[in-house]
Amino acid sequence: MADRYDVVVIGAGPAGYTAAIRAAQLGLKVACVDDWRGPSGESVLGGTCLNAGCIPSKALLETSELFVQARDHGPAHGLRFKELTLDLAAMQAHKNKVVSDLTRGIATLFKAHGVTWIPGRGKLLPKNLVEVSGKSAQQLEAEHVILASGSTPVNLKSAPFDGQRIVDSQAALEFQEVPRRLGIIGAGVIGLELGSVWRRLGAEVVLLEAQETFLSMADEQVAREALKQFTAQGLDIRLGARVLESKVEKNAVTVRYQGKDGEHAENVDRLIVAVGRRPNTDGLMSDDTRLLLDEWGFVHVDEHCRTNLPKVYAVGDLVRGPMLAHKGMEEGVMVAERLAGRETAVNYDVVPSVIYTQPEIAWVGKTEQALKAAGTACRAGVFPFAANGRAKAMGEAAGFIKILADAGTDRVLGVHLVGPNCSELVAPAALAMSFGASNEDIMLTMFAHPTLSEALHEASLAVAGHAIHLAQPRRAK
Asked: What is the reported pLDDT for 1?
């Protein structure tokens, strides 16, 4: 006889494990099924984000940034080293320890909250049965099912993965030596972050981006500044470059691509394919469940993540919206709350996005180009980190903060940042927007001095032409 649960979650990435924990906190009997395997073949929780995405990439980004700071910027701060060397093995070991600590932490949370962890691959069957395949095949009966199986890197026909020379974003985190010359297909979030890591450690990096526009999802002013900074760091970003073919020959990869001025070829030691991710819906359900998917393989859901099947929900990378861990986590919490009878929702208008390069890029809300296209009149205020005392003291004064406010109501419609610690600075902007703050609300808020957050305050003042540490033309009171 199948074990019965109030909730069965398929997938233990951020969306899945968060849903499982919150449902258990609310008194529901919960099981979470996941088939992720660690380096030694052991079952681990956390999905792509903790094991092969968000967390390991940030560990490598942080270590590589420390290396660059010591090597290139230490002397300006009075720090001189007789010899600075890179121990890539130790760097990878640190990353692996961070990952291990966090995945074990989720297992501890499951135990503390009474969530049953079932290693194996989950598959949705009719009548809310979940089939688990693995070492101990079994079936689970569920009152409710939450699908949270995440996503996987897109494979290109023109650059098929071979696991050695042509790799996905996961394998790119495991290099045991710094490539002399590294090619990356895609200059989006993943491509820029991985390119930054290996460029800092000494690789020549070429990014081939098919789009003509750099970071088209970001504010145009932010994207221009970011491109300038990345180019100065030595990232060779080629826009309008469509890859036609990739061939592995001996210990190198030849990449042929169509550029703005004809066909070109590049020889690289390694090639990373970072052109996006697709939802993990293959094999997630049996055909007779009749779960509704769209043409891209995403599960069709409403604003509360309900699918077309009774008492079956889908969250995270499986559904519409940005493929962001925090968006999936909030969806997981929302679904768990609603299963317990609470009326909750996710505010999809206030979803922060971050690119963890140096400078960091972050934004929340609408871009200026989107507002113009919609015919929404807005006022913009921009404040550069070059005029911020804390940023100058840190030696990281590139970039700025930009605030967009409705010209009529003064409500904040978007905040866009490029510069130091912007991944943290976007949080107060998101908080303000979540409460429907006006730009004046930010203007009237006191910020500590000296802090980077003062740049947010000054950008708000700049909207009204009142920035203290910025020469601006006078505006009418």
From this structure: 62
Distance between CA 324 and CA 335 in Å, rounded? Answer: 17
Q: Which letter does DSSP use for residue 259 in this model?
A: E
Question: Average pLDDT of 399-420?
Answer: 98
Catalytic: which of 449, 457, 466, 469?
449
Q: Give residue-wise pLDDT tens across range 65-96.
A: 999 999 998 998 999 888 899 999 999 999 99
Q: What is the pTM of this model?
A: 0.95
- For residue 353, the cross-strand partners are 363
Cβ atoms 115, 107 nearer than 8 A: no
Q: What is the DSSP string of 287-313?
A: GGG---B-TTSPBP--TT-B-SSTTEE
CB of 431 closer than 8 Å to CB of 421:
no
- Residue range 333-357, pLDDT digits in tens: 999 999 999 999 999 999 999 999 9
| CA–CA gap between residue 185 and residue 272 (Å, rounded) | 6
Q: What is the pLDDT of residues 12-31, one digit of tens each?
A: 999 999 999 999 999 999 99
- Edge-first strand order for the sheet with 400-406 is 353-355, 360-365, 412-419, 400-406, 378-384
Burial tier of 3 (Cβ tally within 10 Å: 0-12, 13-18, 19+): middle
How far apart CA 225 and CA 231 sit, in angstroms, is 10
Phi, psi dihedrals of residue 436, rounded to the nearest 5° = 65, 35
Non-local CB neighbours of 284 within 8 Å, separated by 6+ positions: 10, 122, 123, 124, 147, 149, 291
Enter the DSSP assignment of 154.
Answer: P
Which amino acid, one-letter code, is at 19? A
Alpha carbon distance 474, 472 (integer Å): 6
In Å, how far from its chain's centre is CA 268?
26
Give me the amino acid identity at 382. Answer: V
Contacts of 330 (CB under 8 A, 6+ apart): 346
Give the phi and the psi of residue 209 in degrees, each rounded to 5: -115, 125
Reply yes or no on whether 449 is catalytic.
yes
User: Are the CB atoms for 438 and 405 separated by under 8 Å?
Assistant: yes
Amino acid present at 52? A
Say whether pLDDT at 249 is over 80: yes
SS3 276: coil
The pLDDT of residue 477 is above 70: no
Residue 276 gets the label, from left (phi > 0), alpha (psi -120 to 50) or beta, of left
Q: Which amino acid is at 461?
A: L
* Pair of tokens at residue 291: 């779960």
The percent of residues above 70 in pLDDT, for the chain, comes to: 98
Residue carrying the six token digits 């861990």: 325
